[in-house]
From TrEMBL, chain A:
Family per record: Belongs to the 3-oxoacid CoA-transferase subunit A family.
Alphabetized UniProt keyword annotations: Transferase
InterPro entries associated with the record: 3-oxoacid_CoA-transf_A (IPR012792), CoA_trans_fam_I (IPR004165), CoA_transf_BS (IPR004163), NagB/RpiA_transferase-like (IPR037171)
Native species: Nocardioides jiangsuensis
Transferase recorded as keyword: yes
Pfam families: CoA_trans (PF01144)
PANTHER family: ACETATE COA-TRANSFERASE SUBUNIT ALPHA, KETOACID-COENZYME A TRANSFERASE
Name assigned to this protein: 3-oxoacid CoA-transferase subunit A
TrEMBL record, chain B:
Transferase among keywords: yes
Protein name (record): 3-oxoacid CoA-transferase subunit B
Classification via SUPFAM superfamilies: NagB/RpiA/CoA transferase-like
Species assigned in the record: Nocardioides jiangsuensis
Family classification: Belongs to the 3-oxoacid CoA-transferase subunit B family.
The entry's keywords: Transferase
């Protein structure tokens, strides 16, 4: 059953040191700021974080990096004009980096949730990011073998949830949310609003509640403070 | 081939205008971050082009300003944008399935180098202290049916960017079909590099400055 948590600290309880944490969001859109902040407060360390980016400014994922709780980042695009927190840690050798093409990143996460053992993808064939990966020729085209990325925890921001954990998102804030929700042992979702049972049209549900474990209502977009 | 010796070299808007002109009517198109974004300004409504942004939207509208800015509605460059009637949202795995699955007609990308065989280098300079960041570049290069590159023909140090073989780390193999530069439009074909139009220069001059064999497009 889905648990509706009373606050974000309760929502993220029990995250062990060394966990792999899938964090939704693309830039700031769909980033679960309140949950990331709660993980920072929890003190969980030695984390592997999976996100499209490696933090912007000084809040959200950047704050979690700055507090030294992240051992490794798996992402597609760490380098941005405001990724100075990550940049400094990386250059000092204090955080590991695995760069994955964005579509391979998404498909590896989706595969984890879908029970796929591995898959062949054409993306990155012949590039430095293919090094060490198996190549197979299928119907005359080369593909790379890629493995799923599973999370111990997924932190997702959605727009609204019902008591069953069904989720709807807002605009491009959806991004990695639906695929990450399925790919972790524990999926925690922050939403703007928890609506009563029957309050979501079943035809419009994007993430069915079967993929969701805990939901907490938070205020959206605290990120604007340093945007 | 058309040699426009009375106009050119083109400025960035001039290049963007030509890319927009050459996008087939009704195409689904992804415009890369940076210069390619300018192409949107020159697409005519009657072209009925639908813009894709890889963070999960089709039917992307122009940049948002003032009250229209919504933190949940951004493009791949993380710039606030708007939605057009008929827009749709989807998650990342679907967004990249659109590329990889061959549904996206055209993507327009910038480049450090393009090789005569269509190899593309646009994600990494190879500098040892650079932090590698690839984003969706490899997926777009590999997945879109046509990859158009917009770039200057020569780097700041004067070296040509249309080359026999890329020296920078590759983004994709044999994926580029056209290269739009300030001096010429090149079509990369199975038979070699074909010059479609020149601006402020001639095929003969270009042939002297580039290390790849060039042919003029048939009239």
């Amino acid at each position: 059953m889905v648990e509706i948590a009373t606050d974000t600290d309760e929502a993220v309880r029990g995250i062990a040191d060394g966990s792999t944490v899938l964090i939704g969001g693309f830039g700031r859109a769909g980033l679960p700021f309140a949950l990331i902040e709660a993980v920072r407060r929890s003190g969980a360390r030695d984390l592997t974080v999976v996100n499209n980016n490696a933090g912007n400014g000084t809040t959200g994922l950047a704050a979690l990096l700055a507090s030294g709780q992240v051992r490794k980042v798996i992402c597609s695009f760490p380098r941005q004009k405001d990724s100075f927190v990550f940049d400094e840690l990386y250059r000092a050798g204090k955080v590991e980096l695995e760069v994955v093409p964005q579509g391979n990143l998404a498909e590896r996460i989706r595969a984890a949730g879908a029970g796929i053992g591995a898959f062949y993808t054409p993306t990155a064939v012949g590039t430095p990011l293919a090094e060490g990966k198996e190549v197979r020729t299928i119907d005359g085209r080369d593909y790379l073998l890629e493995y799923p990325i599973r999370g111990d925890v997924a932190l997702v921001r959605a727009h609204a949830a019902d008591p069953m954990g069904n989720l709807v998102y807002r605009k491009t804030g959806r991004n990695f949310g639906p695929i990450m929700a399925g790919a972790a042992k524990l999926t925690v979702v922050e939403v703007t609003e928890v609506v009563p049972l029957g309050g979501l049209d079943p035809e419009t549900v994007v993430t069915p509640g079967i993929f969701v474990d805990r939901v907490v209502a938070t205020t959206p977009h605290p990120q604007e403070e340093d945007a | 081939m058309i040699e426009h010796t009375d106009q050119g070299p083109l400025d960035r808007d001039g290049m963007a205008r030509l890319v927009a002109r050459d996008i087939p009517t009704g195409s689904f198109v992804n415009l890369g971050i940076g210069q390619p974004t300018r192409v949107a300004d020159f697409l005519a409504p009657e072209q009925q082009v639908v813009l894709h942004t890889e963070n999960g939207m089709l039917g992307m509208g122009p940049e948002a300003h003032g009250d229209a800015i919504d933190p949940d509605l951004i493009n791949a460059g993380k710039i606030p944008v708007t939605e057009l009637p008929g827009a749709s949202y989807f998650h990342h795995a679907d967004s990249f399935a659109m590329m990889r699955g061959g549904h996206l007609d055209v993507c327009v990308l910038g480049a450090f180098q393009v090789a005569a065989n269509g190899d593309l280098a646009n994600w990494h300079t190879g500098a040892p202290d650079a932090i590698p960041a690839v984003g969706g570049a490899m997926d777009l290069a590999t997945g879109a049916k046509d990859v158009f590159v917009m770039m200057t023909l020569f780097a700041k140090d004067g070296s040509a960017k249309l080359v026999k073989e890329c020296s920078y780390p590759l983004t994709g193999l044999g994926c580029v079909s056209r290269v739009y530069t300030e001096q010429a439009i090149f079509h990369l074909t199975a038979d070699g590099v074909v010059v479609a139009e020149t601006f402020g220069t001639t095929l003969e001059e270009l042939a002297q400055r580039l290390d790849v064999p060039l042919a003029g497009a048939p009239q």
